[in-house]
Design brief:
The protein has 135 residues and is an alpha+beta fold. Helices cover 33% and strands 44% of the residues. The protein has 4 helices and 6 strands, in the order ααββαββββα. α1 runs antiparallel to α2. The termini are far apart.
Amino acid sequence: MSTTTTTENIETVKRLYESFAEGDMEAIRDIMDPDVELHEPKGIAGGGTLHGFDEIVENVLSKLGDDWDDVSVVPERYVADDNTVVVLQTWSGTYSETGKSVEYPGAHVFEFEDGKIVQWRSYADTALFNAALEE
């Protein structure tokens, strides 16, 4: 049984977004369970389910850093219940290959066990995201 509270889980997610903004991969690694699952929207380029922190870094986080400029994820609201934290956020960035910028509202849902994120589900406007990739 987890001893972390809903408030602690919200604070952990806030630290996660701060660590993303700072590019602090070790801090992000410490927040996530080593076997974390990320569920990206299937309609988005590169979407699907990823297993483990290293796979998430290789297939999502590093590609965002390599292929996109000025990526920003701005949390706007946190909604939590027990071991679930939902973040309503705005995602923006410029795809470096096309120079096209995109901004859309989205949501991240984080599931916790023993103070670590074990599941991360991302909801995004896949049409807007994919449109930035097109010449």
